Amino acid sequence: MEIEILGFKGRVKDINETLSMLEDDGIVQLMDARAVAGREHVLHATAHAIKAFERGENIANDIGLEICLRTAATRQISKALKMVGLREGPMEICAVLIDSDKLDMLSRMFKRDDTVLEPDTEYLKKLYKLTWDEIELVGVTGALMERTTLLILES
Q1: Measured distance CA(143)–CA(130) in Å, rounded
Q2: Domains identified in the chain, total number
Q3: What is the extent of the structural domain holding 145?
Q4: Gene3D superfamilies from the xrefs (predicted)?
Q5: Are 7 and 114 in contact (CB under 8 A)?
Q6: What is the domain-level CATH number for residue 29?
Q7: pLDDT tens string for the chain (155 positions)?
């Protein structure tokens, strides 16, 4: 299984149209890059999503949506989409590709820029209601990875 986590900048004109152009080849999940704490966070969430499907403990019926849930560290789909989902207009995008060859298409749709994956501590602290104790103890990325892991215990 090949997993790629990539950053892009661009304008989303129509969410449904954008997502439908990326169907039919592996898994492609697009998220708000500002809501992720780097590649490690997204890779951790993606691994948990895949394992949840393998164990039959998935929350969502779609692996892409499961990746969103795990990235946002919540069991509520509407909350996850509000936190990490695409919006119409200019965006920084985190793309997760699993066994997909849609990189060329994504590169035509958006401008490749992996710097968007660098965590914005202040934004993430507010979005996820992180405490300074959590951030000082394990950092933003570590705190969000821990929350993803704790979703398993809430089952």
Answers
A1: 8
A2: 1
A3: 3-153
A4: CGI121/TPRKB
A5: yes
A6: 3.30.2380.10
A7: 899 999 999 999 999 999 899 887 789 999 999 999 999 999 999 999 999 999 999 999 999 999 999 999 999 999 999 999 999 999 999 999 999 999 999 999 999 999 999 999 999 999 999 998 989 999 999 999 999 998 876 54
